[in-house]
Amino acid sequence: MIEPIGNQYVVARPVYSANAFGEDHKKKQRHHKTLLDHLKKLCRCSAQRAKKIAFSSFPIASWLPAYRIKEWLLSDIVSGISTGLVAVLQGLAFALLVTIPPGYGLYAAFFPVIIYFFLGTSRHISVGPFPVLSMMVGAVVVRLTPTDSAADSTFTNSSMTNDSSIDEQKVIVAATVTILSGIIQLLMGVLRLGFVVIYLSESLISGFTTAAAIHVLVSQLKFMFQLTVPAHTDPFSLFKVLESVFSQIEKTNIADLVTSLVILVVVFVVKEINQRYKAKLPVPIPIELIVTVIATGVSYGFDFKRRFNVAVIGEMKPGFQAPIIPSRQTFQDTIGDCFGIAIVGFAVAFSVASVYSLKYDYPIDGNQELIAMGAGNIFGGSFRGFAASTSLSRSGVQESTGGKTQIAGLISAIIVLIVIVAIGFLLEPLQKSVLAALALGNLKGMLMQFVEIRRLWRKDKYDCLIWVMTFIFAVVLGLGLGLAASVAFQLLTIVFRTQFPKCSMLANVGRSNIYKNRKDYSEIYEPEGVKIFRCPSPIYFANISFFKQKLIDAIGFRPLRILRKRNKALKKIRKLQKKGLLQVTPKGFICTVDGFKDSDEELDNDKIEELDQPINTKDLPFQIDWNANLPLNIVVPKINLHSLILDFSAVSFLDVSSMRGLKTILQEFIRIQVDVYIVGTDDDFIEKLTRCEFFDDEVKDSIFFLTIHDAVLHILMKKDYSTSKFNPSQEVEAKLDDFTINTNGGLRNRECQVPIETKF
After folding, report:
1. What's the pLDDT at 760?
2. Of 104-118, 143-157, 308-322, 592-606, highest mean pLDDT
3. Which of 308, 562, 638, 705 has the fewest CB atoms within 10 Å, i.e. is most exposed?
4. What average pLDDT does this structure show over 345-360?
5. Domain STAS: where (predicted)?
6. Rounded Cα–Cα distance for residues 69 and 72 (Å)
7. So what's the pLDDT on residue 232?
8. Which residues pair with 10 in a beta bridge?
9. pLDDT value at residue 62
C-alpha cells in the first residue's frame, strides 16, 4: 500500500525475495511469438494491410492529397527556385571532387530529386550531391582510371581525344559505383536493415565529415592554383597531394588564385551575415548565384581563358545523354567502397531528415528512406550521375526560404532541368577555380566542428576519443579505409566500456530506501558486516575476470585465500581434538599443550582441491568463530563481512561462460560463511540461470531479492533472529571463558582466548 503525505510517500509491503514475490503474485501465461508466427503475420494479406503497404511504399500518396495549395504553394515555389539555383552550382562544384566534367554534376542534382519526390518520407531535405560522397566516389574513380600521364602514353590521337576518352572512363566508373551503391541501399531498405545506421554515432559522423572537409580542401588546391597534380588513393595520399602542390607552387596561375581567394572571402562574409541576421532577412542572400553570375560575366567579357590561360568549365552539351551499361568488373572491384558510400549517404540523409521531422513533428521511415535513396542513385547513376545524399546547407536553404513539402524539391529539379536543356551554355566561361571556391565555401560548417572536441570532452571522453580517432583515420588512411577503421574503433570502445565498467560500493543515503555510491556522499549509513556492490554493465566472458577483481578490491580480501587458510587451520584444530589436546569443560575448552606445529612437508602436501572445498565442522563438538585469535600458531585472516549484496539492476545479460565464473565467485563467499544476495534482476535473468542448471544445494535461487532495501532488511531481520536464540548472559560468559590455554603445568592463562562456540 502506498500513502502519499505531501511530497513524500509511505510504502507498506512485505520484504520480498524473488521467490516470495512469485508466490504472492502469480505471473500470467504468455505466448512468446516464434519465427514462424512472425512469418505468418508478414505473409498475411488484407485490404487494410495492402493499403498500409501502398502508403508506406509511396509516401506521396499520403501527403499530396492533403496538400494546402493556397497556404503552401507560393512558399514551395520560392523555396524551390532558391534551392534549385544552389543545387546547380553545387552540382557543378562537387563534380570536380569526383574528377569528372562539371556538367555531369547537374544529372546528380536532378534525377535523385525526382525519385525522392515519390518515395521519400522527409518533407524538407534537399536531395543531391554531397561533398563527402563526392570525395568517396572520386577516390574510386582515381584508383580505377588512368592518370593523364598514363593516357598520354596509351593514346595516339590528339590531346582533346585523350581528354574525352579519359573523361568517359571516369564517368562510367562514377556511374557504376553510384548504381552499385544504390542497389545496396535498395536491398537494405527492402530487407528492413535501416537500423545499421545506429553503428555510426554522432561523434563518428562529425569526425568523419570534418576529415572529409580537409580532403575536399586539399583536393581543390590544384584548381585554385591551376596545377597538374597526380592522383593518389593509397593511405597518406592527402600528404602526397600537398607535397605535389607545394613542389609546383611556382607554376601557380595568379588569375585563378586571385579569383578563387576573392570569391572565397566574399562567400564566407556573406554566409556569416546570413547566419547572424537570419531572423531579419526574409530570405538568405543567394551569394553563390550572385558571384557565379558576376564571375561568368567577367570571365567572358575579359576573355580570361585566352588572356590568362585559366581553366574553365568548357563545353556543356544541352540535353541528356544515353544511359550507360554498368561495368561488371567495376562492380567486383568496388563492392567494399560502394558499401561505405551507401552507408555514409544514408546516415547523413537520415540524420538531417530526423532533425526536420522532430522540428515539424512528422514521422519518417528509415527503411523507406533507404529505398528512396537507393532508387534515386540507381536511376541517377544510369543517366551518368554520381552518388547523391543531402547537403546540410542546401536543405537549410530549402527550409529557411519557406519550403513546406517536396513540391519545393520538384521545383528545384525543374530549375536544374532548365539549365541542363536550355541555358547551360551560359556557364561555359566560368572558371573552375570559382567552382572550387564555392565548394570550399560550403565547408565552413564541417570545419567548424573542430570546436566540438572541447564540448565532447566535457560530456563524454569516449565520444571525444571516437571523434579524434575517426578524424585521424580518415585523414591518414583515406575516406574508405578510414571509415572502416573508425567503425571498428567505435565498436572497440563499446567493448572497453563493458569490459572495464565503473563498479562501485553503495551505501544508504538519508536512512531511506535509496542507495548511492558511498564515495559521493558524506552522510551515509552502512549496516555492520554488510557490503553492497554494483555492476553497471552486462557480464560476459570478456569481463567476468575484471568483475571478480573489482569485487575483491572493493571488499578488501580474496575469499578463496580465506577459504584455504581456514581449511588448513581446521585441519590443525581437528588434529588437536583427535589427540586429546582440546578438553571440553562446562566453561569451555582447555588446550593442554605448549605448542603444536605441522611439519612443513605435511603442509606442502595439502591438496588444493581439498582446501577449496566447503568448511565442514560436523565431526567437531564445537563451532569455530574465525574472526578472533586462534590457539597456538594457527593464524587465519579476519574478515568483518557476513553479507554481500550484488546489485545487478544494470546487468542486461549474462552468457554461459560468465555463469560459471559467477557461480565460482558465489561459492567462494558462501564457503567462508558470507551470505550473498543478488538484487534488481528481471525474471528472464533468473529463468536463464535455471535453464542452465545454475542452482544447486550450495547456490540457491533464494538469494534473489527485488531491491537492495529488501535484501538489507532481510539481512537485518535474519541477524536479529540468530542473536535472539542465545541468552545475553550466556554470550558474555562464552566470550570470557570459551577457551583457555594451559601453558604452565596446568595453570590457566586467560590472556589467550580462542573463540570456539559450544554446539547446543
Report:
1. 33
2. 104-118
3. 638
4. 87
5. 520-715
6. 5
7. 72
8. 3
9. 87
Q: Which residues lie across from 643 on neighbouring strands? A: 530, 675
- What is the spatial distance between Cα 654 and Cα 540, in angstroms, rounded to a whole number? 6
pLDDT digits (tens, 9 = 90+) for 62-90: 889 989 998 899 999 989 998 998 899 88
How many other CB atoms sit within 10 Å of the CB of residue 571? 16
Select from 175, 152, 173 the least CA-distant residue to 163: 152
Q: How far is CA 127 from CA 119, 189, 262, in A?
A: 12, 17, 29
Q: Which residues pair with 128 in a beta bridge?
A: 389
User: First CA to last CA across the chain, in angstroms?
Assistant: 42
Write the CA distances from 73 to 115, 234, 359, integer angstroms: 20, 49, 21
* Residue 589, SS3 per DSSP: strand
Q: What are phi and psi of 757, to 5 degrees?
A: -95, 130
Distance, CA of 140 to CA of 172 (rounded, Å): 12
Question: CB–CB of 177/334 below 8 Å?
Answer: yes
Q: What's the pLDDT score for residue 680?
A: 93
Give how far Cα 731 sits from Cα of 204, 349, 727, 738, 758, Å.
Answer: 66, 76, 6, 10, 11
- Give whole-number Cα distances, 385 to 53, 173, 672, in Å: 30, 11, 73
- Which residue from 419, 352, 316, 369 is spatially nearest to 81, judged by alpha carbons? 419
Q: What is the pLDDT of residue 740?
A: 31
User: Which residues does residue 584 pair with via DSSP β-bridges, in sequence order?
Assistant: 589
pTM: 0.76
CA distance 214 to 347: 20
Q: What is the DSSP string of 700-736?
A: -GGGEESSHHHHHHHHHHHHHHHHTTS-HHHHHHHHH
Q: pLDDT value at position 585?
A: 55
Name the helix (H) or strand (E) containing 597: none
- The grid coordinates listed for 748 are 590457566
Burial 185-222 (b: 16+ CB within 10 A, else e): bbebbeeeebeebeebbebbbbbbbbbbbbbbbbbbbb
Amino acid code (one letter) for 604: D
How far is the CA of 199 from the CAs of 245, 336, 343, 726, in angstroms?
Answer: 37, 17, 10, 62
- The Cα–Cα gap between 737 and 740 comes to 7
Give mean pLDDT, residues 304-316: 89
Residue 659 CA to residue 688 CA, distance in Å, equals 10
CB 366 within 8 A of CB 121: no
Amino acid type, 103: G
Q: What is the grid cell recorded at 587?
A: 566453561
| Cα–Cα distance list, 19 to 126, 685, 714, 718 (Å) | 58, 14, 13, 17
The pairing of strands 739-744 and 747-749 is: antiparallel
CA–CA gap between residue 423 and residue 426 (Å, rounded): 6
* Cell 531481520, residue located: 717
Cβ neighbours, 10 Å, residue 26 = 7
Q: In this structure, what C-alpha cell is assigned to residue 744? A: 604452565
For the cut 90, the answer to whether the pLDDT of residue 28 exceeds it is: no
Tell which residue, 518, 555, 501, has the closest CA to residue 708. Answer: 518
Rg of the Cα atoms in the chain: 38
Please report, for the chain, how many H helices and E strands are present, in that order. Answer: 34, 17
Strands laid side by side in the 739-744 sheet:
582-585, 588-591, 739-744, 747-749
